[in-house]
Amino acid sequence: MRTWWITLTYEWIKMSRMHALLVVLAALPLLLIYLLGSAFDSEIKPAKVAVYNADQGAMREGVDAFWQGADILPYVRPAVLSSEARVREAVQGGTADYGVIIPADYSDKLAAGESVSWHTFDGHDGRKNIAAHSIVRSYLSQVNMKAAAFKVLGPESLSGLESRHTDAAALVKVQTLGGGSDQSFGSISAIQYYSVAYLVMFLQYGGMTGAISLLRQKREGTLQRLYGIPASFSAVVAGIISGAALLGVMQTIIIIVFTKYVYGVDWGGAYWGIALISLLTIIAGSGLALTIASFANTVKTMQTLFNTMLFSMTFVSGGMIAMIQNKLGLISKLNINFWANAALRGLMDGSSRVLVWQNIGILAAIAAVLAIFAIIRLPKVVKQHA
Amino acid sequence: MRSLPIAMQLIRRTMGTRRGFFLNVLLPAIALSVIAGLFSSLQSDKEIIAISNADQGALGAYMLDIVNQDSLYEVQMQTDLTDKQIREAVAAGDADAAIFIPADFTERLLAGQQPQPVLYRWTEQLWNASLLSSLEAQASSMAASVELLQAASGGAAPDAGKLSELLEQQAKPAVSAEHTPMKLGVVAANPIMIGSVLLFLMLLVSQSVGFIMEDREMRTMARMYTAPLRALDIALGNYLGSILVGTIQLVLVLSLTYFVFGYSPGVSFGAMLLVLECFMLASIGVMTAVAGLMRNAHQLSQINLLIVSPTSMISGCFFPLSMMPEFLQKLANFMPQKWALQAIDRLSTGAGLIDVAQPILILMLFAVVLLIFGGAVLRPSHQ
């Protein structure tokens, strides 16, 4: 026990001097969570529309009033540009999401009763195209209504229109079934989603430090010297591995506290559950890393293999592109991340405890299998000639 | 060319062994092709709108004109569905939104009341918020039409035939929005494939810079300096080696994805190679500059993770740049990935190499400035 404790504390002292490692393990996940959380937040961002109004006729005023109106602001942010080429450039370069050009003969043709078109340019983002397009069309449909009334009922009919005031909101009943949250992240927010995904990913990354430490000490021969001391060798190895695991615990605390108080992430309050899931993830990650280390021999190969695996597991379980796991079928489930993510997300959105425990159960089974593998293969990792 | 043996040695160390070849060349190429395959099948589809028009009269159909008019949505007419069933379709995720027109729509509209069509959606998003707004505009203009008729006929109940005429007239619009086709780059909106190539390229470059670092750390570099070579030869050899290693990997990976797995964003192989080559020079610059600040190769590989993935994210390698907050978009100008993506995006519109001269020059500028900073890594360690 004493040997174990001493090795563990020395592992910690060593790790506390590896500033680069500590920064990667703590700051990188926080940075990624911030970036992804702010890129995918569900706040509705209006489409930026580049507008060029070439018309100088009588209708120009009405058109300008429409673009300057406050009622379109929730959906589109117009930017008035000075030529058609500028509009094209803005849309092509992505500084605008959509482009509209009002032709020079707009007023004249409309007054003459001929048909005329606004020219629109679709931008890169399909949904923003839809938004901008609907806004343009709803303005045009009002213009058309007036034009039709003018034709069918005569010019005097329009005088009544100006005094009309209807509450547009009452015209269509809208029901939002899913509540406020964004569907693309299930029932939680983007930042919650990515906090979970990167906590799980970096816990396993932390678990790898144990395997790296063992391999490096073996290469440098310092591990073999420890056979010489009058203490249990397995206690020493256990100390090194659990030192790395403890690092994972620290990571969990840092990530959860930081995201909770700085980013305002709601972790759901079931902290014992989170602790259990994190611990199982650390065990599974360390188990995987040690198993890989037993085949890899050198630190470099081990790192490459483990990084590749971790990257793929994070990817297929939806850690990079949200909810991709629902489209990939079985392959998305054959990894550690999927079950840890699902369990943590379950704790966040308060879904049924049975479901959460089911996910924890599967995660525990995976962790147990990987731990057993690791124990069987451990001699290959620590012994010079095993 | 006394630098060549040094360069060749770097190549042998990276991909000379069977394992090195597998890990550094084959694996990234396969991973990229898998990503390309996944993403071509995952292209986002149009929003599905389920519509049920239970209206007994003719006016409900006019209401829906605005949705039917063009191909922004995939419209599913499901007239036999009840209000409740169509609500279920949205709740179950079969449709992204649904519109229900009640049975008494025409009747109530003609009576001067406001019949409410219903829009169901799962969450409020920009596209359905503006769909709602255009439905409201349509409803408002229909209500206005009824009022106009009422006024015209001196307060009598409006004649349905006259109303149809009025709406018919509106259906042949005087003003329409004509969509002007314009060639848009495919990369800016769907950057993940090219973005992953950039990411892999940076990781591969960081590996060969890691080898140089290792030489320095193990003092083998100091030994090289005892050879009858100028310092410049050694530095050139190491740079050349990194460039060659990167180029070989790049050509192999690109050939595999282009010719074996058949992915191409509409950019010719040569142009793509040119841009990526320039990007690689810039990333060698970045990596050596970073390496200059690090103490050992191990530290370097860890710091690289910290540099490569967040900067790739900020510069739009995984999702469109426009999704980022404004200040991060500006920050992206300092990342070589952004310029490489921009160049490839422009090329994918069919632009010529002249049109991408600016981003390419910026990449070269990155390379030159950072290589000067990174020069330190190529001198023997004095520790």
Low-confidence stretches of chain A: none
Structural class of chain A: alpha/beta
> Strand order of the main beta sheet of chain B, please?
2-1-3-4
Largest sheet of chain B: 4 strands, mixed
Helix content estimate of chain B: 55-70%
Q: Into which percentage range does the β-strand content of chain B fall?
A: 5-15%
Span between termini of chain A: 26 Å
Overall pLDDT of chain B = 80
Q: Taking strands numbered 1, 2, ... along the chain, how are they ordered across the largest sheet of chain A?
A: 2-1-3-4
The structure class of chain B reads: alpha/beta
Total count of helical runs of at least 4 residues of chain A: 15
- The gross shape of chain A turns out to be elongated
Mean pLDDT of chain A: 84
Shape of chain B: elongated
β-strand number of chain B: 5
* SSE string of chain A: HHEHEHEHEHHEEHHHHHHHH
Unreliable stretches of chain B: none
Could you tell me how far the N terminus lies from the C terminus of chain B, measured between alpha carbons in angstroms? 30 Å
Radius of gyration of chain A: 31 Å
The radius of gyration of chain B is 31 Å
InterPro entries (chain B): ABC-2_transporter_component, ABC2_TM, ABC2_TM_bact-type
Transmembrane segments (chain B): 21-42, 192-213, 234-261, 267-291, 303-321, 356-378
Pfam family, one (chain B): ABC2_membrane_3
GO molecular function (chain B): ABC-type transporter activity
